[in-house]
Amino acid sequence: MGKEFSSCDRCGKVIDYGNAHVTISRNVEYAELVIATNQKEIQVIDSEVIFTLCAHCGNSFDARTIAAIIISLPPNSSRIIEN
Ligand SMILES: [Zn+2]
Q: Which H helix or E strand runs over 83?
């Protein structure tokens, strides 16, 4: 493919269409059980990519470690960015 899709927010490498990459996203979702089909359906109300990593950088992180870091942040973490 060869056309630039994005770049890695950690190392700056260009990510072309067709290249594997890792994103951390913030999704606001609404879940419901559809009685007619007895299936769960999830509707994404809002989605925002927080950052994008090339496959090398993204795969060097353990997802559980990232989750532990996010859980350890205070609910209003805007002060962390200010300081
Ligand atoms: Zn990278």
A: none
